[in-house]
Amino acid sequence: MSKKTIRLFVSVQMPSSIQKEIGIFEKELKEKKLCEGSYVDSAHAHLTLKFLGSIAQNAIPDIDRSLQTIKYKTFPAQLSKIGWFETGPKIEIIYATIMSPPLASLAEEVDNVLRPWAPRENRMFVSHVTIVRVNKVLNNMKFLRFLANYQLKPVEFTIKNFSLVKSTLTESAAQHEMLKTYQLK
Q1: Domains of the chain, start order
Q2: How far apart are alpha carbons 40 and 163 in whole angstroms?
């Protein structure tokens, strides 16, 4: 008998003010037709603290109890700039940077309490909100110039909670369902 598994991650959901700014950038990038790719709906913008992957569904209560042990105060954050991840010369992900030093320590604490279910992260935490997964760049010079010169509005907000999220992959996009939200004090 096989165990039923689900895809899980822990994230900070972005407020509407950040979703709006990301949506403006997405619209401009699409209009310029500089790349093709899979855009993340700005209404679902989030910052992933930890991706767990496929986890046995019966582990959710234990994961929930572990996440409840995290005690943090609310803290400020700010939308910063456009960035990207690349492999060699190929840009693969375009993202918005979120500036907030406490985010890295919150991500580390989430990583630590979830070790029984997912390996520890070996790479440095990059505080970001994915905007587009790039499949093809249509004009490399214009594309890079646009990304490097684009100025996001530096919107400030307060991080008040984080969530355990179920992710279901579909042909068009991943569907996310909040399973539990953990309030910061």
Answers
A1: 5-183 (3.90.1140.10)
A2: 18
